[in-house]
Amino acid sequence: MSGLAATGFDLMLCALILGAALAAIAVRDLFGAVVFFIVYGVFVALAWLRLEAIDVALTEAALGAGLTGVLMIGAVSRLERLTSRDQDQDAAGPQSPPTSSAARIATMVGAAGIGGGLAWGFITLPPSAGLQLAVAENLAASGVENPVTAVLLNFRGWDTLLESIVLLAALIALWSLARDQDWGRRPGLRQHARPGGVMATFGRLLPPFGFLLGVYLVWTGSAQPGGAFQGGTVLAAVWLLVMMAGLKAAPRVSSTRLRWALIAGPLLFIGVGLAGAVAGTFLGLPTAYAKPLILTIEAGLTLSIAATLALLVLGAPMAGDGLGPDQPDKEPAR
Amino acid sequence: MLVDGITCALIGAGLLFFWAGTAGIIRFPDTHSRLHALTKADNVGLGLLIVGLALQAPDWLTLGKLAMVWALTLVAAGTTAQLVARAAITKPAARRGPASTAAIPGDTVRSKDRAS
């Protein structure tokens, strides 16, 4: 883009980001707030694209806007179902405790303090070229050509390993919300797609494209923008689509195969790390084997990330409409 | 130069459809006519944009990607429209409380029709 047009576009993008962020906070309707949050994520992804951080843009679009948005929509709809049930039982409806103005002011001061601290930290940063040069110098030894993948899986593999374990911990926390009698059931609500309906057709049509795109994103991650997290998110979406279209039921949480898929990535990663520890450094990859090792770890991570994200969206194993012990089960326990 | 002109005209026409579609979503009274406005913007508006951009494509690969974007959006938008329309018929007041249902007269009428 030429100078003036590019500046105009960037200014407009900044205004849209700020506008969407403000709307997400200001809108009183919860669902509307989530919608604006998703719109905000899409604009931020565009901003990363303008900054030529394509890896971050992909991640923001897939995880920040897409997956987080779906999780929030799920939370809002559960909240609405809970609220309408309470309204049925109690004509007065739910009464949220009024927020005192002292609490509001305290929140505002806290948020302003954190924001100010961050701004101060940023302004007082010493001028530095960052680690770009160091990464570029050592890129040849990393086994991959994409500097972002080199940092994520080689130079700072430690962070990525912990991230994959954090995802697993989140799923375990979610599953721990299940009632005892629901344990071992399929996670999430029952799906109501009509066989042969629009959703079922969509669920047959899209997965081949999605699967190809997901695997491509992982494979190309070694040389170009892409990687296990982006590809895994696409694959999770494909799996969710197949389940929502009623083509395949969600796996039972007690399934051994599912458990292996969930831990394959972290396990492979730790295994490679320990082998590195025996050879000298924990998570150190010898240059000669770096590329195959990175691809192996990425393959395992992709499987685990896809499975974990999809199951996070599905929710805890539950019976009926999943509204907890007050609600009588609509289907008898199997 | 001529190609640039055609691109501008096509993208301008596409933007017009997006503008009309957006106006429709805001102004139309019920879910189904809003969906009608939305899908026009998605299908025709995006189609005109894509055709306009395709004229500027440097190679066949870009052309293929553009065609793919349009085709996938058509499928996704069509499916979503069907699902939303069906949901609006089967459970008109499912999502919102009574206050916002009253703001969509068509839906309220429909739910009464079904009840009677």
UniProtKB/TrEMBL annotation, chain A:
Subcellular location: Cell membrane
Keyword Magnesium recorded: no
Segments traversing the membrane: 6-25, 30-49, 61-80, 101-123, 161-178, 198-219, 231-250, 262-287, 293-314
Pfam families the UniProt entry points to: MbhD, MnhB
Membrane protein topology class: Multi-pass membrane protein
Record-annotated Na+/H+ antiporter MnhB subunit-related protein domain positions: 199-316
Coiled-coil residue windows: none
Keywords noted in UniProt: Cell membrane, Membrane, Transmembrane, Transmembrane helix
MrpA C-terminal/MbhD domain location: 15-81
Domain of life: Bacteria
Broad class of where this protein is predominantly found: membrane
Family according to the record: Belongs to the CPA3 antiporters (TC 2.A.63) subunit B family.
Protein name: Sodium:proton antiporter
The organism of origin for this protein: Blastomonas aquatica
Native organism taxonomy: Bacteria, Pseudomonadati, Pseudomonadota, Alphaproteobacteria, Sphingomonadales
Automatic annotation (TrEMBL), chain B:
Signal peptide: none
UniProtKB keywords: Membrane, Transmembrane, Transmembrane helix
Coiled coil: none
Entry annotated with the keyword Membrane: yes
Keyword Transmembrane: yes
Domain of life, per lineage: Bacteria
InterPro entries to which the protein is assigned, alphabetical: PhaG_MnhG_YufB
Pfam families recorded: PhaG_MnhG_YufB
Region span, Disordered: 93-116
Transmembrane segment boundaries: 6-26, 67-89
Protein name (Swiss-Prot/TrEMBL): Na+/H+ antiporter subunit G
Organism: Blastomonas aquatica
